[in-house]
């Protein structure tokens, strides 16, 4: 069995680069058996798989590496025995996606929030998630971990928000943006449960000016207590499950 | 102005110890001006305050330290100019607390989840939060950061769950425990909105056997999508805001 022990190995070095956003153009890393299975099942193209020796028999196509080399190509504190390089799906064709109930993230910065929101949209049976370009990168290892494979259950795209809003207008989909303002209404007053795009904004700044301009309805969550705000993922969870 | 430059200073060394759970018996650390204000306003006893030189004039009672010394007594990656030692409130008297609508955390391990859930209970106007002894420590710096001062808005206690359940039975408060089992009903079927204790379980294992035995109602959140589960803080947010 040929075991790669050197961090200078070409395939290892290429994979390592994918920990940095600037190198993630067409490919990204996944870690662990669960995500590998989810990716395979969804038909995602897995270009390279690295496993430690103990899993070699299970993955005959994989490159066998030492634990040290495997640790080198992940940023996880508790690395599992598998890392794979997966091809991105960058071809967005609005005609091929169900847009009946979608989640839009407008500048959500924290990778944990982005991942959790995509996982929650998946749990809630939403049809797709769109992220503005200034959100945390969907393909970062941290977002990958908190999504728990939900990106393989529903389409997730990074987009130009103004183009998305244009498309949604054409399709007569109502844009509901979450905010705390004088013009907003309680989400409980919204009767429409489909044909909606739910928009959540940045952790500190809220929704962008573009979203404010383009939204059909501004909604808020009434808070009877003393906390000044809700975490954006919590607000998203409450709203998503209100619309199922 | 006397500026402490040494990490060997007695007050500095005592404060530093509070980063470790084993030393947090009666006191804990808070960081930043916002939490300091919240603590002061709530009447919490602030035993010692450390600030950097630039804030000395605003805090005449504080110990002035260098930025390096301040960084030494916090585990934050982006330390602010203030750290304070605060006295815990360990005196639990059930007679003095409103128990009309409470949140119970049963073995929630992640500090971010614990903090976010307490913040969400606060936002939702819940009356108190109780944590089983095996939850992440409420007084840890990470939980403190994600609570964002909500522990100064509502009572938060670490308790023996069996004693709590005994008390709740006496008071005829319904224990609703979140779980995914054959015996659970959808949370939407629960009509009662007060006199309730909502229990959330561990991230991996769910609620404990004790909670299963003591719960009056087991509730779940229907998930029309493909994700296997919801993050516990998201589930908590959905449930808390259902009961307001």
UniProtKB/TrEMBL annotation, chains A, B:
Write down the CDD domains for this protein, in alphabetical order: SpoU-like_rRNA-MTase
GO molecular function term, any single one:
RNA binding
- What GO cellular component is one of the record's annotations? cytoplasm
Print the keywords alphabetically.
Methyltransferase, Transferase
Which InterPro entries does the entry mention?
Alpha/beta_knot_MTases (IPR029028), MRM3-like_sub_bind (IPR053888), Ribosomal_eL30-like_sf (IPR029064), rRNA_Methyltransferase (IPR051259), SpoU_MeTrfase (IPR001537), SpoU_subst-bd (IPR013123), tRNA_m1G_MTases_N (IPR029026)
Recorded coiled-coil stretches: none
Q: Which residues form the RNA 2-O ribose methyltransferase substrate binding domain?
A: 29-92
- GO BP terms in the entry: methylation; RNA processing
TM annotation in the entry: none
Q: Which SUPFAM superfamilies match?
A: alpha/beta knot, L30e-like
Q: Which family does it belong to?
A: Belongs to the class IV-like SAM-binding methyltransferase superfamily. RNA methyltransferase TrmH family.
According to UniProt, the name of this protein is: 23S rRNA methyltransferase
